[in-house]
Amino acid sequence: MSRGILLVALLTPFTPRGDIDTEALQAHVVDLRTAGVDGFFLCGTTGEGPLLDDDEVLLITRTVLGAGGAGSVVITQVGRASTKATLRLLDKALDAGAHGATAVTPYYYELDGPSLEAHYRELLNASSGRPLYAYVIPRRTGNDIDPDLARRLAHAGLAGIKDSTRSVERHCGYLRIASELNTPFEVYMGTDGLALEALQRGSTGIVSAIANINPELFLNLRNAALNGHSQDATSCQDEINQLRTWLQQGDTIANLKLGVRRRLEKGRVQYPSSLRLPLGVAEP
């Protein structure tokens, strides 16, 4: 992939009965693609992925593939607490047509490096050469992938990493791995507040939650950063940081859904703002 890819960490809309609202999901995807985003990161933290059943993950994957159109990149998050459950969902997601899969580090149990390495090597063997990414968000999972482990996994065939550690130092460690390899190793920044710095340091792209409600802002940031317009890029990042502060006043996912609801109201699309239990319900 080229530098500056913008993937949206896509929200998951639910009907009042708690099912996936495929019509709202399709409308949101079409709107984001029309705005110019490159693709979608499905069923991650922002998408309430740990609260979704396997069949729901597959429904979301197929729906986004259908709505995104030609050229849209779709990466499905398949990580579960156990290797067996992750392998099962990985196989199904790739069969459903996902262009790649990402697996968050196993959670709940504290794992050492050899255990994490064995887990990802099992996934790599099962992916049969199709892109598999690691998703690192230790504050949520309790487990981490340091650069040394990431380097070993990259040599074993890991396609890249989504970095949500909120650490510039760590991100640079992953970028050094990419510079050392003769094969592509994609490094995505998963923290909106560090989007500009990541692009300036050579990241493959951004996986953004805030792009759900304002993709244009991130596209402007990308274009300014890659074209050397530093003042414009800084202004975009400042605006992103202001949005981030507002979203964090209360539940971030609920605020994002309300933002999408307002955005799509112009096209007379009813986007639900409810969250899956136990996160709660945010319908007005």
Note down, in words, how this protein is organized:
The protein has 284 residues and is an alpha/beta fold. The protein has helices at residues 22-35, 54-68, 83-95, 113-127, 138-141, 147-155, 168-180, 195-200, 215-226, 230-247, 252-265, and strands at residues 5-9, 39-42, 73-77, 100-104, 132-136, 160-163, 186-189, 205-208. The protein has an 8-stranded parallel beta barrel with strand order 1-2-3-4-5-6-7-8, surrounded by 5 helices. Helix 6 (147-155) runs parallel beside helix 7 (168-180). It is globular and about 50 Å long.
Structural class: alpha/beta
The coarse overall form would be: globular
Summarize the biggest pleated sheet: 8 strands, parallel, barrel
* Count of runs of 4 or more consecutive helical residues: 11
Describe the protein's topology.
Blueprint: E1 5-9, H1 22-35, E2 39-42, H2 54-68, E3 73-77, H3 83-95, E4 100-104, H4 113-127, E5 132-136, H5 138-141, H6 147-155, E6 160-163, H7 168-180, E7 186-189, H8 195-200, E8 205-208, H9 215-226, H10 230-247, H11 252-265
Parallel strand pairs: 1-2, 1-8, 2-3, 3-4, 4-5, 5-6, 6-7, 7-8
